[in-house]
Amino acid sequence: MANSIQTGQYDMNDIFAIYELAIPRSVRFWWYLILNICSLICSLSVLYQLLFHRKLRQALNNHVIIVLLFVGLIYESLSVPFMLHFYRVGYSWNITTSFGHFWQFMDYTSYTISLVGFAWATIERHILIFHQQWIATRRQRFFVHYLPIMAIVVYSIMYWFLLIFFPACEDRIFLQPMNGVPAPCMAYQLFWGKWNTVCHLILPTFIITIFSSALLFRILWQKTRLNRSIQWRQNRKMTIQLVLISLLYLFFNLPRSILISVTVDGRSLYLIIQLLMHLAFFAVQLIFFLPFICYMTIPGSGKRLKKLLLLKSGRNMIWPIGVTAGRENNNQTGQKETHMT
Q1: What is the 8-class DSSP label of residue 90?
Q2: pLDDT exceeding 70 applies to what percent of the chain?
Q3: Rounded Cα gap, residues 223 and 242, in angstroms
Q4: pLDDT (average), residues 152-172
Q5: What 3-state DSSP class applies to 160?
Q6: What keywords are assigned to this protein (predicted)?
């Protein structure tokens, strides 16, 4: 069995080498490395504020954001470093089957939770703004708010766990040209391939498009036609946050979803596959940029971060005894001169 996997790996790697990206691997390496480091720092900063600031932690609209940021943090810590290594060594990297399964599971599960989870967030934001009576009690909040988030996470984990670790096909590990992530063999089966494409990419992307646009339209319509400026001021931050994150998701996923929906029947040409490989490379970057959008849309995030840094620098600052005594004498002298004048 090991020999068949090994042979399949080299055969498929040779085939995928035909679809190598026009962007050199060295450029992709530094591109991902810089973005990943900056995104990790920003993710930790935003998560710290969302988890340790009571008002932000209790806000229902932030719960999905916390899940997405936490999943993105796992993705950037576990999957992206393997991509960077692939950009360094290329197809000469001979990975084992167990490692390939682990990489597949972490990558595909994280991205599915990120895309499907935010698609639900665009639906839930309508409930939080226009139908607050649906979440008035603790029981209602559990079924309407918490249960869908948990269901998306559990579904994504179980779906990819079964397809990757218990495949009903010949298990071959090969590196994809855009980032090296091994593709599960079940993803190339007719039913599961279409299920993954439609339910985990095309449908969430169009849900984000429809519901984020509808939310913006409803808010503006109530503001202009019904003259509900007070409600607009209360929900402005939630709306702006959703619209900006939606634009980020659509920028990286909408072109790919449209192109895949055209070629979902399997009759793909060489140029279309090449374009899809490039779009898949750029699609990963929505996880890099998500923390920055969240940072910009969290109320008072800059002030809290500045206060935290000043507090830590003040604690770590140790003054010599002579300098401290000199400052006290100068202060006392200045006070005496002031009284004399």
Answers
A1: G
A2: 77
A3: 18
A4: 91
A5: helix
A6: Cell membrane, G-protein coupled receptor, Membrane, Receptor, Transducer, Transmembrane, Transmembrane helix
Could you tell me the two tokens for 248?
């980020």
Q: HEC string of 215-252?
A: HHHHHHHHHHCCCCHHHHHHHHHHHHHHHHHHHHHHHH
Query: Domains plus CATH for the chain?
Result: 2-299 (1.20.1070.10)
| C-alpha dihedral (196, 202, 203, 209), degrees to nearest 10 | 150
Region for residue 198 given its phi and psi (left: phi exceeds 0; alpha: psi -120 to 50; beta: otherwise)? alpha
Give 228-237 pLDDT, tens digit per residue.
Answer: 655 666 677 8
Is the pTM value of this prediction over 0.85?
A: no
Residue that is written with structure tokens 């779009």 in the block: 279
How far is 11 from 321, CA to CA, in rounded Å? Answer: 72
> Are 279 and 23 contacting, i.e. CB atoms less than 8 angstroms apart?
no
Distances (CA, A) of 313 to 38, 45, 53, 310: 22, 16, 20, 5
User: For residues 50 and 60, what is the distance between their CA atoms, to the nearest angstrom?
Assistant: 11
> Which tokens hold the place of 304?
């809290």
Q: Pick the closest to residue 155 from 191, 123, 108 (CA basis).
A: 108
Q: In this structure, are residues 86 and 179 in contact, taking their beta carbons and an 8 Å threshold?
A: yes
Cα distance between residue 112 and residue 189, in whole Å: 18
